Amino acid sequence: MTPISVRLAEGEDAATVAVLVHALLDELSGGKAPTVEEITERAKAVLSETGVVAVIACADDAPIGVMTLNECSAIYAGGKFGEISELYVRPEARSKGIAQQLLDRAQQEARARGWKRIEVGAPGQPEWHRTLNFYLRNGFEEVGPRLRRLV
């Protein structure tokens, strides 16, 4: 198997992050994701924020996975914590431990930043049951559905 490298994204990686996040959104939405150009502009803005970290996984210098983490704060969490906003591995690279390496990097970031927890929202069930099971196998606990309200 090709060695996988995992590294923090930098400002010039916004386009790479955007391509991978676009693929994630396209898969989740059944092909209805915003354009790569729109997502690139969003990525540039979001990645410039101090509380946001993106991690890129590469095989032979080709990007094959991405994860974004946000620093959040809540009383119930005892202060600051991390939230995985996006985690994606290209379909042809799945089940090879890449997502696990991204989660391991999230753990490292959490420790370095003094976070006591990491949270993630899994996509809708039962369609994405493999995603939920992956997180459960990796020590996450279900705490209920996540809801949203657009404004």
From TrEMBL:
Residues 4-151 form the N-acetyltransferase domain. Keywords: Acyltransferase, Transferase. One of its GO terms (molecular function) is acyltransferase activity, transferring groups other than amino-acyl groups. Pfam families: Acetyltransf_1 (PF00583). It comes from the Bacteria. This is GNAT family N-acetyltransferase. It comes from Aquicoccus porphyridii.
